[in-house]
């Protein structure tokens, strides 16, 4: 099951790269690696960032979480060769679209 979710997240990343011109993925292998890195960053780094920025998140009524998602997405694009995000605003849009597409694909898997 975990392997299937990983593959679906890689497919979602390819869909995001196809839709948005500011995000590029070199190949399906690069998408697999990027999906793995994004999953690890979201599991390890993001909870720490949420804890450190909790007052700002509360003041903005949770909207700062969009910024954190974009920063993690942008960071993954900056450390990987086959996955590139061209700027912060592309990271914001890319993180939102990636979340929507991966949720839709996971919903198809559940039904």
Describe the structure.
The structure is a single chain. The protein has 111 residues and is mainly alpha-helical. The chain has one domain. A two-stranded antiparallel sheet has the order 1-2. Helix 1 crosses helix 2, helix 1 packs across helix 5 and helix 2 packs across helix 4.
Summary of the model, kept short:
With 111 residues, the protein is mainly alpha-helical. It contains five helices and two strands.
- Total DSSP E strands: 2
Number of domains: 1
Low-confidence stretches: none
- Proportion of residues in helical segments: over 70%
Structural Rg: 14 Å
Shape category: globular
Distance between the termini: 14 Å
Number of helices: 5
Strand order of the largest sheet: 1-2
Write the layout of secondary structure elements.
Elements: H1 2-19, E1 23-25, H2 28-52, H3 54-59, H4 64-79, E2 83-85, H5 88-110
Antiparallel strand pairs: 1-2
Helix pairs in contact: 1-2, 1-5, 2-4, 4-5
Features:
111 residues; mainly alpha; two-stranded antiparallel sheet; 5 helices; 2 strands
